[in-house]
Amino acid sequence: MNLRGLRLAAVVTAGLLAVTACGNGTAPDSTTASADDGATLTLWTRAATESVSKALADAYNATHRNKVEVTAYPNEEYPAKLASAAGAKALPDLFAADVVFAAQYASQGLWADVTERFAAFPAKDSVAPSHVKAATWDGRNFAVPHTIDMSVMLYDKDLYAKAGLDPEKPPATLREFAGHARKIDQLGGEVNGTYFGGNCGGCVEFTLWPSVWAAGGEVLDADGRKAKVDSTEMAEVFALYRSLYEDGVAAPASKDEAGPTWLGALQGGKVGIAPGPSAWLGAMEAKGVKVGVAPITGITGGESTFVGGDTIGIGATSGKAAQAWDFLAWTMSDEAQVEVVAKSKGVPTRTDLASNRYSSADPRLVTINSLVSKGRTPYAQNFNASFNDSQSPWLQTVRGALFGDAGKALTEGNSAITKSLQQG
Amino acid sequence: MPVTMTSPPRERAEPERRPAPRTRRRSHGGRRRRALTGAAYAAPTAVMVGLFFLVPLGLVVWMSLHRWPLLGKPTLNVPNNYAGVADNELVVSAAWFTLKYTAIMTVLLFVVAFGLALLVQHRRPGVGFLRAAFFLPMAVGFASASLLFLGLLSDEIGPVNDLLSWLGVVDGYVSWTSGSAGSALGSAVVLVLWRFAGFNMLILLTGLQAIPVDVYEAARIDGASRWQTFRRITLPLMRPTIALVLTLMSTGSLLAFDQFWILTRGGPDNSTTSLVMVIYREAFIRLDLGSAAGISVVLLAVLLVFNAVQFGVLRRRSE
């Protein structure tokens, strides 16, 4: 071509080179520099955890040169946001994720490997073990606990008293729970005995699995590759909730509850006793409900909990791993766990801090904190697709077990979930 | 234009015409300049189409031939992603539902939009207000409109159930968006009708107004009834507009996502899970980009066939 064309080609090539250079231009991780060097760190989290992330970031920013900037996304959109960011190699420096998704993110390499850094953390043995295990892939650690939320029985003390039950004597077995719910339901009017999220896979696993575990049953194998939801223990738990729904003891909206209005239903002061997240204690009290807290039990006794919440790790594409770890290590320190988390009635992510000067003021918090060691966090690489997603085989199983042909739903569901767990 | 430029200059080879090389060069240069100017005018659109349509399309096809992790190197796994489409039970049920929804939606939306267009066709007092009122829902974003309906239809916070029970239509608790497969689909259909009928009415209205008044007058003089006028004049002359509207409606319905994602979450029991929701699940829940790309390519092929058939039929008829 001519000179002009040549010049244009040169300019375009130079531009492309510049763009490529920018794309690869993340600074190499400098391990020699101080980890608190005034870096700005981006942190992503989901709306459900936003308040805790912000409280931790504010406290850290106040005492450090590094600055953590928190961005929260709506819960449902968050996994897609993370996947898009990973695809574009533009993950934030730090991101938190629902603990049950941790294995999937770790296996996809979305978090940087923190095995050596975590091993050097002084109190590593008392960091919530089920969370640490959830973010382990091929024997390497990829994330640490960020927030802990556990499933517990939440009951309305006023309705207990009205129904002639002792507000200080919560049910000790799941059968007793059903009995209490039936008695409160007899109060009539708008009051219902209980409530559950019958159209929400995540809600059901969070509140019903502890009853299976308490009875000595299993829902998954240790590797998260095989489902065990067709067990007798699971069938008994479903049958109990099913009878509560069929007899009108559970609010009719339980069948369609997909999650968004779950808290609203419990806050209304019209539900006697229902399993739910421990983190809602404050939100329910704010609406004037006198809340009692008790562990979730098995059909004939025992107690357990689903240790949920979020784990947090360093974005695999971040160039500020040292600074990001400085923040993570600080969030697990005594100072952050007691003065930020426990002070705002949260559950410390360190088992050695379960009883602290804030929890001792509220016996209900002692009940909640003591459950961490008895509870479990299920582990599976394909957890979201198999259990939490609206199109998951687990939700189909739940719907069948509670409102359809229970026996068939559990048998067929078990193989469908197993197939989903082994995919990919 | 390229044909005239490349045609061999037979007569120009004659010796006596030789003295014209400068002119020829100039005219050749002029044509070339014109061609370049044309190309320059088309360039912005061509770049946009190339960058935002052809490149992503190529990438999706390329992705569908690979196992494509979020981070790390893709590996060729053809034809696994396509074989997986047939094995996926959710794809089959979603494809069936999407087709059913497309049929219902296209018919209903067309009838309502055409009805509205006929209603506000002539200038009469109040017609301007009605046209604006029918078109207004289009000003609300589709996701926002879906959320609005979710709130309105909610038993907890919405007024619809209170109103219906006051009128004695329903008794007790009713869940429109997830109570049954029928009511979930129904609530999405009502939402889409509310949101899009006005827009399609507008397109049909422009078609109606393009029909010359003399044709109607001639028919009236010939003594044609209203129904005959509608069948013999309005419908045949509206064919190109109807073709456009039907294509827009069926393509939009085949690609349905927002209304089901927000309003029904694909439930109850996957009864309102659309194909695009399955693509979303493969990409963002299972993080299997290759499989998501495979389903997308299949859906694109179906859309192409759909539109080709539709255009073919309508073009033949208008000829």
Summarize the structure.
By secondary structure, chain A is an alpha+beta fold.
Q: What is the distance, rounded to the nearest whole angstrom, between the alpha carbons of the first and last residues of chain B? A: 28 Å
Largest interface: A-B, 33 and 33 residues
Name of the CATH homologous superfamily of chain B: MetI-like
Show unreliable segments of chain A.
1-33
What distinguishing features does this structure have?
heterodimer, A: 424 residues, alpha+beta, D-Maltodextrin-Binding Protein, domain 2, 2 domains, seven-stranded mixed sheet, 18 helices, 14% strand, globular, disordered N terminus, B: 319 residues, mainly alpha, MetI-like fold, two-stranded antiparallel sheet, 14 helices
Tell me what the structure shows.
The complex is a heterodimer of chains A (424) and B (319). With 424 residues, chain A is an alpha+beta fold. Chain A has 2 domains: 37-149 and 308-371, 3-Layer(aba) Sandwich (D-Maltodextrin-Binding Protein, domain 2), CATH 3.40.190; 150-307 and 382-422, 3-Layer(aba) Sandwich (D-Maltodextrin-Binding Protein, domain 2), CATH 3.40.190. Chain A contains 18 helices and 11 strands. The longest helix of chain A is centred in the first third of the chain and has 21 residues, at 3-23. Chain A is globular. Chain A starts with a helix and ends with a helix. Chain B has 319 residues and is mostly helical. Chain B has a single domain, classed as MetI-like (MetI-like fold), CATH 1.10.3720. Chain B has 14 helices and 2 strands. A two-stranded antiparallel sheet of chain B has the order 1-2. The radius of gyration of chain B is 27 Å and the shape is flat. The relative contact order of chain B is 0.11. Residues 1-17 of chain B have low confidence and may be disordered. At the A-B interface, helix 3 and helix 17 of A face helix 13 of B.
